[in-house]
Each structure stands twice: as structure tokens, then as C-alpha cells.
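Appendix B. One record, verbatim.
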Amino acid sequence: MSSEVIYGRHPVYEALQAGSRKFKKILIAKHFEGDIVNNIIKLAKQRNIPVQYADRQHLIGYSKNHQGVIAYVSPKEYLQYEQLLSKVKDKKNAVICILDEVEDPQNLGVILRSALCFGVDGVIIQKRASANISSGTVKASAGAIEYIPIIRVPNIVQAIEGLKKNGFWIYGADMSGENIFKTKIIGKAGIVIGNESSGLRQLTREKCDFIVRIPIVERISSLNAAISASIIFYELKRQKEQ
């Protein structure tokens, strides 16, 4: 089994709970206690997953932020693009997040967590020139990565075109756009978040039906990509619940 390492109490616990990964083994720091750690050990025993105890210093070799727990697991499985379209075909208020070359793995993790919290149906990322799933992404998502569908595509622009053909209106996040809080969002929505430094690429921007912004006090130029995504996800959820 090809494997990757995930670390942190919540990411490992949620992966066990979700049952979305195959576990090779779990390493736990000696004398490390707590309810979550006890539950990890309990679930591991139920599923015949080997649990080994190691010095905390040994775990630092994997990450300084290991929280006393390391696991060797199978890689996260991506959802196929066609499966996503089938999944949201009959959902009139579906929301899809499209990441246009977001590069920071931790930003990706935070976006995945926010997407799960606010009912986003899937997150599309690009195979190249973008952050893909890493142990840092898993940690930043605090377990959400085990539940939110992630779709990896070779071309973001083509993915957007496919969504539009399936009834989605595409909203690009950019500081030149209309106030998101004054924009009525109806029906299926695709939210495009751009690169941390350069924003939306020109071709991606041209494919958007609307450009929206989050109004801020102009002492800084813009919000972090992950924070922007979280606020927009919340606003969509708020509008759809009215």
C-alpha cells in the first residue's frame, strides 16, 4: 500500500471516524494522554490497526506540530469531475469552489474546512501550478478533508465551462468586483478563488459571469485567500437560508 503521513490528533481521529483511508500504523508519543488520543487507540484496536509508542522527539522528525500522534495512511482519493456533475445535477442551490492556482497547502486546508462547514458541495483544484494535498493540508483542515469532495482537473477553465453548461453561474473573487453583500446569488453557484499573490488569471476571469469583492477597511490591499473563501461561503449560506 502506498502511504502518506498525516499528523495531529483531530486529523488522525477524523480519518479513523470517516473510514475513508486505509491505515498502515499509528505512532503515539509515550505518556501522551487525553480523550481524543484514547479514542484513537480504541478505534485502532477495533480495526486491528497497529499502534506503536515512540519518544516525542522521534515524532518531531515528521512535524513539530504532531500533537503526539502520527499515522501512515493511504492517499486521499479524489472525486472524478463527472461524478461531481452527477452529484449536483438535481441540487438547485449547489455550490462548488474552484481554486485558480492557490499555492499554499495550508490555505487549501483552511478552505476545505470552511467549505465543509458552510455546505459547499465540492472543491476543484488544478493538477499543476496549485497546492495539492499534503500533510500540512490535512492538518490545516483539522479533519474536514476526510469528508469534503475534492476534484483535481488538468484545466480550470475547462472545468468552469463544464459547470456553466450544467447550469452554474460563476462568481470570481476580486477586489475590483461588486460588493458580495449587495449581490443576490441565485441558483447553482461556482465560486472562483485566485492565487494568493496575483489573484485570478485573465482567462479565468473572462469565464466568470460576475466578479465580486468583500468590502474591507482599506488599510491593507486584500484578504488572505482562505479568509476570503470562508466569508464568501458564509454569505452564500446566509442568502440561501433566507
